[in-house]
Amino acid sequence: MIGQETRDIERKITAILKILSDSGQPVGSRNISKLLEEQGIYLGERAVRYHLKIMDERGLTRSVGHKDGRTITIAGLEELRNSLVTDKIGFIGTRIERLAYQTNVGIRSASGRIPVDVSLFSKEDFPKALKVMKNVFEAGFCSSNLVALAGEGGNLGETVIPEGKVGFATICSVAVNGCLLKSGIPAHARFGGLLQIKDGQPYRFVDLIEFSGSTIDPSDIFIIGRMTDVTHASTKGDGKVLAGYHEIPMLSVSKADELLQRLKNHSLLNFATLAKPGEKICEIPYNHDKVGLITLSGLNPVAAAFEAGINVSNRAMCGMIDVARLRPFDELL
Question: What is the mean pLDDT of residues 96-107?
Answer without folding.
Answer: 87
